[in-house]
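Two quick folds needed for the group meeting slides. Do the first one here.
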Amino acid sequence: MKEQKMHFQSVFVFLVLSVVGAQLCDETLEYEKDNECCKKCDPGTRMNQGSSCKDPVCEPCKEGEYQDAYTKDSQCKRQPICDSNLNLQQPTQSKKELSECECVPDHHCADTECVSCVKNTVCKPGEKISKSATRNTDTVCEPCANGTFSNHESALTCTPLTICNSEFKEVASGSLISDRTCEKVKGNGTAIALGVIVPLVLLLVLAVVGYFFYRKGKIETLSFVEELQGCPTWCIKNTHQAVQIDTEVEQPVQHINQPQEDTEDLLKLDIPLTPGVSENGMPVIQDHSKSSLLSQTETGPEEFSDDL
């Protein structure tokens, strides 16, 4: 009985010591072996067989392998194989973590395990991308709003339609896939310019022509007067028709029996007259009717007495 009691005590102490010894090891960095806490190998390496507990021999993982935690294992984990036929590609591999396969550009995973990829939806002209695709989700498209358009695939935004201002007219109305076309209105600027410039030019021309005729008439009048003032009697006779000045002076008809003294008195006028110019300096035409009449009256009586 006494021996059995001691045996139970020994077993209890052993169990207690085992539990205490196990709790003293760091499960992350160490492992227990023969009631000792042994050191593990770092991530990205594996433990060489036959390594000692306190000073293990650790070797790097091979290409296509990885180890993502401290380990006492002698083998690294293998990276997944990415099949290009399933639209998968291998990213840059790491020896310390899992390098999951990725979809080739413009593709997303066909399922949650991403064992294959499918092409992203392409937003057509007239649409824009509402939500871009991710590794596990497809692209979401939405139509352009009224008054906007997109003319190429996978547009990020829709562009507002062009507005034709007052100088342009609309040639083609816009749509969801094309912009509005505007064309500059021809002739508006020219018509306005002509409406302003032509009247001004006409007024200027009329003013110049009027001034020209005014100056011409004034100069001709002055020139004519100056010409008459210095012109002799024969010159004034030649200009009689152009000037149209009435120079004829009605003279009383002399009778044959009129005394000679009367005709002589006519020749004895005291008013001096300059040929071609009056007393007031105005141009006149010399009247020779008096001299002709005087000459006839002087010779008339003699001829009459001879006939008798």
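Then this one, please, same format:
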Amino acid sequence: MNGRLQDRVVIVTGATRGIGRETARVLAREGARVACTGRDLGDGASVVAEITAEGGRAIFVPHDIASEADWRTVIARAEAQLGGVYGVVNNAGAFLVRPLADTTEADFQDIYDVNVQGAFLGLKLGFEAIVRAGAPGAIVNVSSLMGQVGFPGAIAYCATKGAVTGLTKTAAVEGAAMRPQVRVNSLHPGVIWTPMITRQFGDDPALAEAFADDTPLKMIGLPQYMADAILFLISDEAAMVTGAELTVDGGRGAG
């Protein structure tokens, strides 16, 4: 039986760990040919090995997502080795928790370059690649619950993820008017137990339990839940979904 993304080429940024790694694996299980990107060559080789061991098809391309030249290289490699591009998952991002008074201009610029510039380039060049492929496509931008609500001590992160939300809606309107059409949606994770969180706060199991207790569903977010949501948004099951904000946070933002 064919998967939901059988033989469709999808680029997944930040695919070496966390949400991106699990997403690459889930999409590959559904038949996608996945171009995994990231900075760590060892982790990149590892995720490709996992996908191929499961019978999937994937390549790894080193990638600075704030670099247009790198984006063009990634897309060229994907087209040459896997085929015309169907979709992009703009997952790679940077996280910073620091009060406004302590956030420097350099801090803000660094996180902007990754979270906003990277998503902008993924949209712009992703659109171009999908048009070249000649068939409708889809892009998913990984924003955050903190791109929808304020969070004390995280002004740079909230601002940049809010920008990703705005980029998504504008691109969705433009993508709907294109031929072929490109759907664009954003995913808004809550607290997800990944290296991005543990590097900032530590990996004490008691902390994970505390996050779960602070969530209405009393669950800690796992990469698998995000990957499943991304699979929905990028597949034909979401054929009439564009410009949407899909919040997957266990209810944290609802209170």
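Slide caption for protein two: The radius of gyration is 17 Å.
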